[in-house]
Amino acid sequence: MTETVTSSEPKHSLLSLVPRAEGKQSMKDFKSDQEVRWCPGCGDYAVLAAVQGFMPELGLAKENIVFVSGIGCSSRFPYYMNTYGMHSIHGRAPAIATGLASSRRDLSVWVVTGDGDALSIGGNHLIHALRRNVNLKILLFNNRIYGLTKGQYSPTSEVGKITKSTPMGSLDAPFNPVSLAIGAEASFVARTVDSDRKHLTEVLRQAADHPGTALVEIYQNCNIFNDGAFEALKDKEQAQEAVIRLEHGQQIRFGADGAKGVVRDAVTGDLKVVAVTEKNQSQILVHDAHQASPTTAFALSRLADPDTLHHTPIGVFRSVERPVYDTLMADQLDTAIERDGKGDLGALLAGKDTWTVVG
Amino acid sequence: MTSQVNSPAVQADGAGVDEALDAPVTVPVKAPEKEVRRLDRVIIRFAGDSGDGMQLTGDRFTSETASFGNDLSTLPNFPAEIRAPAGTLPGVSSFQLHFADHDILTPGDAPNVLVAMNPAALKANLADVPRGAEIIINTDEFTKRPMAKVGYETSPLEDGSLDGYSVHPVPLTTLTVEALKDFGLSRKDAGRSKNMFALGLLSWMYHRPTEGTEAFLRRKFAKKPDIAEANVAAFRAGWNFGETTEDFAVSYEVAPATAAFPPGTYRNISGNLALSYGLIAAGQQADLPLYLGSYPITPASDILHELSRHKNFGVRTFQAEDEIAAIGAALGAAFGGQLAVTTTSGPGVALKSETIGLAVSLELPLLIVAIQRGGPSTGLPTKTEQADLLQAMYGRNGEAPVPVVAPRTPADCFDAALEAARIALTYRTPVFLLSDGYLANGSEPWRIPGLDELPDLRVQFAKGPNHELADGTEVFWPYKRDPETLARPWALPGTPGLEHRIGGIEKQDGTGNISYDPANHDFMVRTRQAKVDGITVPDLAVDDPDAARTLVLGWGSTYGPITAAVRRLRGEGVAIAQAHLRHLNPFPGNLEEVLKRYDKVVVPEMNLGQLATLIRAKYLVDARSYNQVNGMPFKAEQLATALKEAIDD
């Protein structure tokens, strides 16, 4: 059985609503005058460089770009971007960005958040932004630890993690952010890695162009409190077995010379990894990020072993078009004006039942 | 519907009339067939089961009364449960209306007429009804089971417990069903219109105009014309019943309150509606799109409902996933240049506290509309209280001053909303607009302002650099303040060259860059406080015709009862001064001088003394509290007694 790609209509990007930059931009244009104060060696530097490097390609007027963040190490990000920005409070960035994006469709609004910010204190706002499909690009820096508060386990930490707050090991099962996002009706979900600039940039490119909420999970190394958390995906030898690169329209194969592949189990319908053979070659799943049903994307998100990170797919899991909240909101305003005429304050205040007192 | 109230043949002079008197003044006038008496004022209370439509009945009687030109004040009172078990005491819903031929201030202390739709309604309300008052009772409900449900072992209609009242036993359900027998409705469905029958009867008793209610019913049931006509028929049957039955020998006239109203066009309006209109007007006057982030909560949800109906004014309403997201979205919209509002009640304010603190730090305009209800915690969601003043003042981490504005009457919610918007926009600050459940649901006549009477709230956004560095470079500093107002510039995303970052971390004065410098923090804390302290607010007006030695000071919705009590005292020759605060933060500049002019200051509040605490702390004045926290507004008579005791003490 071969998966066929049926739903690859071009999406209706909303970027056309955002004014374009007049001249040619460079990475330098996006660097603010503030000294970057992350720990030396932090993965955040690589992400910042990738974003600053990607922005000129996007070609938007930088005054129409806004970065909104919550609290945590990654949330210092807006200070380093020479765009408009708001460093808000813990977990609330998606809510604040929702107000901005839904009232200003001429802006490209980005949310920078972390695993604690987005999935613990701000979990509610994240899932609701995703379900509404507000036109936000959410960069979720996942380092599987609390860095700014100096090393407590996070909602993505592996079970049994020894930290300052869990000397006998953490008890709670982690969230898988990609699974969570797909479950929350996200229209665009991707995963990438801080150290892979090329991949990160390609994912950013697709996210920026996506109409609606795009969630990009970025595996990011905290070299102080959780160093090497993603080493399995970065070490060249290990990565061959660990990383599954998803590419829309391509068979899902990995390992040395693509020796392994993902197939659908005929009995359970679930996905599984197999060694590719002559016989099963045609059954290797073809990745369809645009498939309306989230089922396969969700199954892909479950392939990874949360402890060893073996079989971790990266790339765009899901990218489908569905109505965008901000657009719908603006349309309702237009419809109301068409239907009732532009608001007349005098008529509104007077209402229907009045009486007059003459002097 | 517009009715014209011309110069009255009989002019009722409302000045000095004391509405807390026990009985209305009755003047016999000639009766054509049935006797018609003229009253100067009436208090009616409709009471029934939550499902009996008492709020609708009260609203309609109010609209009729408003269009007739009486002054009026209303007090809806209903349980938090949508439908408590039928026929039980907790399920009783009531609507009290006070209307008069003169200027009145409160919904009245004690009803002259009680309409009791069932035994529970009678039992729950009888204690408030003075002997001699009229009670209209739906006898159909006074059968064994409904009576037993509320503990009536014998029928109060027969056991003498209503002696001294003027009781009108009316089989309202039976009469309604009979009137609708040609409509092909089931007895149960036909019986549902009994509230309209009762409304018709009361409309006859008080000579109310009826065309408004008939038009309303046809509008409301436009999609179900049969139901509309059945209700109209029940309404007319109630009217005709009054006219024909011998039990109702007398009807009453309450002349329009012409003298109470300055010339103008009027409508009846509730506090939440006036507040909603005030917000829309503020957006129009500021020439900014209005953005509401809200989460449903009693008694504030009406504002969300109302604003969501006016998208053709460019109003965006966002029903958020929680209270925090509601204010978060509003704050994000404020950053983008909208007139941003969040609406809530006490528990919601608690959840929003951190974001309010962020708004203080970001110095962006934001309206926080808090419709207070009984607390703490869930408290009494449908009852009124003033116990969130200190939460509004201080309920945040750090030194986080927020201006507070409080409306005093339902109609005043309109002006208070404009005033709160003025402060927010001028000073770039979050502002609390502190209303309460009594104002929210109560209603009164409102002179509709001309658009030329509304304040100009337009703002200047930052357009270019505002600072020159030592080397001559022109830059934009997001925290370089206006020297007069101390407001910082509002630079909207999309403005080229003004890209800047703001956040909740302490900022360096001027540049807005992150700063942990101790001296800078001290300076910024003091500057934010100075900005709020320096807000221009009008001086406090004092009403003191008799050079009194005692001042009664109130805030918010106690204005009506306090003023009624003061009138009563003055009517008895007692000197008392009255002042009412609209601005709770900052206080008016002359407040200290006013307070120190009097030997005694009495502060009645529906809390345990929150304004009194502020006054005592700030001015070292020995203010006396008079408190009531029972979920209901003060009664004028009770307040007058308390004030008299304070004066004599």
TrEMBL record, chain A:
Which Pfam families does the entry link to?
Answer: TPP_enzyme_C
Q: Which GO terms describe its biological process?
A: cellular respiration
Main EC class the enzyme belongs to? oxidoreductase
SUPFAM superfamilies in alphabetical order: Thiamin diphosphate-binding fold (THDP-binding)
EC code(s) of this entry:
1.2.7.11, 1.2.7.3
Tell me a Gene Ontology molecular-function term this record carries.
thiamine pyrophosphate binding
Presence of keyword Signal: no
**Keyword presence, Oxidoreductase:** yes
Q: Which InterPro entries does UniProt cross-reference here? A: 2-oxoacid:Fd_oxidoreductase, THDP-binding, TPP_enzyme_TPP-bd
Annotated keywords? Oxidoreductase
Per UniProt, residues of the Thiamine pyrophosphate enzyme TPP-binding domain are: 71-218
Its recorded name reads 2-oxoglutarate ferredoxin oxidoreductase subunit beta
Q: Which organism is it from?
A: Streptomyces candidus
Automatic annotation (TrEMBL), chain B:
| Ranges of residues in domain Pyruvate/ketoisovalerate oxidoreductase catalytic | 51-238
Q: Tell me where in this chain the Pyruvate flavodoxin/ferredoxin oxidoreductase pyrimidine binding domain is found.
A: 293-506
Give the matching InterPro entries.
2-oxoacid/accept_OxRdtase_asu, PFOR_II, Pyruvate:ferred/Flavod_OxRd, Pyrv/ketoisovalerate_OxRed_cat, Pyrv_Fd/Flavodoxin_OxRdtase_N, Pyrv_flavodox_OxRed_cen, THDP-binding, Transketo_C/PFOR_II
Q: Which Pfam families match?
A: PFOR_II (PF17147), POR (PF01558), POR_N (PF01855)
Q: What is the lineage of its organism?
A: Bacteria, Bacillati, Actinomycetota, Actinomycetes, Kitasatosporales
State whether keyword Transcription regulation applies. Answer: no
Signal peptide, first to last residue:
none
User: Could you tell me the keywords of this UniProt record?
Assistant: Oxidoreductase
Domain Pyruvate:ferredoxin oxidoreductase core span(s) in chain numbering: 548-631
Q: Which GO terms describe its biological process?
A: response to oxidative stress
EC top class named in words: oxidoreductase
Name of protein: 2-oxoglutarate ferredoxin oxidoreductase subunit alpha
What EC numbers are recorded for this enzyme?
A: 1.2.7.11, 1.2.7.3
Which terms does the record give in the GO molecular function aspect? 2-oxoglutarate synthase activity; magnesium ion binding
